[in-house]
Amino acid sequence: MTLRKGEKMTISIQEHMAIDVCPGPIKPIKQISDYFPRFPRGLPAAVGRSSTLRSAVSQPSVSPAEAPREEDEDVDHLFGAYGTTPAEQPAKHQAPEEVVDPEGYESDDCTTLGTLDFSLLYDQENNALHCTINKAKLPKLDYRKGLKPMDHNGLADPYVKLHLLPGASKANKLRTKTLHNTLNPTWNETLTYYGITDEDMIRKTLRISVCDEDKFRHNEFIGETRIPLKKLKPNQTKNFNICLEKQLPIDKTEDKSLEERGRILISLKYSSQKQGLLVGIIRCAHLAAMDANGYSDPYVKTYLKPDEDKKSKHKTAVKKKTLNPEFNEEFCYEIKHGDLAKKTLEVTVWDYDIGKSNDFIGGVVLGINAKGERLKHWFDCLKNKDKKIERWHTLTNELPGAVLSD
């Protein structure tokens, strides 16, 4: 090219973007999108663009009416890959089409919040729901799944919290141990809900939250998932490995008067040998926390009413600092079998306090005027002499009759 005196050399935008200004072979200039790959299994971005540019240089010239505007070409080259994925760019910038496996692309939530590996088992015979929390994986630039780093060191102190819904009480919450300074926690820890009935499996949902423990601030939420229990089959382990989601609101419109206060396992047996009703207080599960330390000091009282002589009260030992006490105590009420149909058994659970009135946790009434499982339990006892029958019952916060703490 010959230049007249005083004339400056000019290079078109197309030429500028297609070659380096340094002497040497023609090289494509890297674009912004080269540093932010979106498709790990797709065609490398640089390969697609270099072939496009080479074809652009060698293609025949077009008429001015068909040629793209220079400023449009500038914007496309500089920002096209930044604002859109390669599949969304105009045809003139596309590399040869290649099918991308949809499983190879992670959603933003998966990449950001991570995944959790766990399993659930409903033991129908023992009315127990076993939740085994296995491990979680952390997000990396190589698109591995995992938890979001929460601390300044780029790590987290994760733990897992379980919550049965509906049920706003602390009695429904369980949690794993905390693992410190890791983005790839492995718990292999099993948490168990006792007293789970077939009805619970139909209507309840298990909320599983992953949180970051912080000693000096409030614990931070990482992600959660919710599993309707009706998805489980009795006595069959179901494995899950799913993405954590952002926090969802909990329905707070539940009637507080119906809030569960925990479960109690009671056995009934009419003994022909002892000529009396044997009432077994076996254990309680997930009682409401009544003390400031997040626990209770529970004990159980039983009454067989009407009780004209006020001699029917029995009381278990106090179990310190627990929401899942085991009592394994049995009381005998001497009574004729025919008189049981006229009686009502009141069972109440209390939190023992020193120097002040004991707190009522919850109660249940079994008898001819009861309903549902409570009535069925009573009838089964009357119909089957000398047979011990165990049932889980849900405690309510309504105080039966005129029972007072002592």
Describe the structure.
With 406 residues, the protein is an alpha+beta fold.
Tell me the total number of β-strands: 16
Cross-sheet strand order for the largest sheet:
5-2-1-8
Question: What is the subunit arrangement here?
Answer: single chain
Percent helix among the residues?
Answer: 10-25%
Q: Could you name the CATH homologous superfamily of the largest domain?
A: C2 domain
Order of helices and strands: HHHHEEEEEHEEEEEEEEEEHE
Instruction: Please tell me how large the radius of gyration is.
Output: 34 Å
The main β sheet shows up as: 4 strands, antiparallel
Uncertain spans: 40-110, 141-145, 253-258
CATH fold call of the largest domain: Immunoglobulin-like
Class per helix and strand makeup: alpha+beta
Contiguous helical run count: 6
Count of separate structural domains: 3
Form type:
elongated
CATH architecture of the largest domain: Sandwich
The first-level CATH class name of the largest domain: Mainly Beta
Strand proportion, as a percent range, falls in: 25-35%
Quick structural overview:
This protein is α+β, with helices and mostly antiparallel strands and 406 residues long. It has six helices and 16 strands.
